[in-house]
């Protein structure tokens, strides 16, 4: 579905079944923000219509290929795990007679995840992850009320009808309704950490598992150890993650960061950076900046010589920095990243820099605050860090 993903998500599965488009699918074309993520995103009633259009197409491919259901049946599984963004997995597992189904989201909880699971979603309490200003004024609350009505009474039922209709086209009218199947899920796992989210009244079927995938950090290799050893006052790790390739970051934005980094000669900056045709002179006279195509992010964040993290605040990066107790300068780009950045700002573990406000001076100002505000360090590596470590 996403041609930027090269792996299959597991190293331990005994059986793997692949299906989808030959070549690049339509997701990259439909999700325009993946290539223009420094542009402001307009307000929308249906935030992920492009995603659902794509999953409808993918559902058709799965249902029209009998080998998919047969593969599931042959596994004789006792339990299936479905993504809670759509209805097709629940339909597939029910057709294949899997007795128990749990669901997961690799993001924070969206209102439609809660609604699909049968949780009442009062708009004042359950704000949208994609409308994450955390401003509970009248205008914001009214907008979210309208959006919630649209999601609950039109968007989710329509998506259920579409994918249920696809399943019935190939497996007959007796196929159960997708929403009723999703509603019956036994457990919903969310990839966020309850200590990092705003408190919500939730049933026991919803479990936070953010950070579950984090193993023990490994010792750094000689190259990274040398770089950190050359830092007089510490190192800052910089990464926009895997979904924001450097070719889509405008040169003027990259220049702002490099020029800002030059003003902090006592610190080194380790930047996850893919070399570009237009950057021949970008790093001239910037001996404290180390652009590298790959970095061991989790291992670096756990090295005591690292004193800060510049991040897009994707959920995995946000979880990693929080578990490592490293203060952040967040530059959210799309989807749930502003929500995560706002949570960090609310907790006092991060400074938020808007992607539309990036200049050399704004980066310098944020870095000065990041490197001099003792409260950021105390909160990140203090009581909150201890509480997260104890979960």
TrEMBL record:
Gene Ontology molecular function: glucuronosyltransferase activity
Family listed? Belongs to the UDP-glycosyltransferase family.
Report the subcellular localization.
Membrane
Give the Pfam families listed for this entry: UDPGT (PF00201)
**Primary location group:** membrane
> What is its membrane topology?
Single-pass membrane protein
Gene Ontology CC entries for this record? membrane
Entry's SUPFAM superfamilies?
Answer: UDP-Glycosyltransferase/glycogen phosphorylase
**Keywords, sorted A to Z:** Glycosyltransferase, Signal, Transferase
What species was this sequence derived from? Answer: Diploscapter pachys
Please indicate if the UniProt record lists Transferase as a keyword: yes
Q: What is its EC number?
A: 2.4.1.17
Question: What is this enzyme's catalytic activity, as reactions?
Answer: glucuronate acceptor + UDP-alpha-D-glucuronate = acceptor beta-D-glucuronoside + UDP + H(+)
Q: What is this protein called?
A: glucuronosyltransferase
Q: Does the keyword GTP-binding apply?
A: no
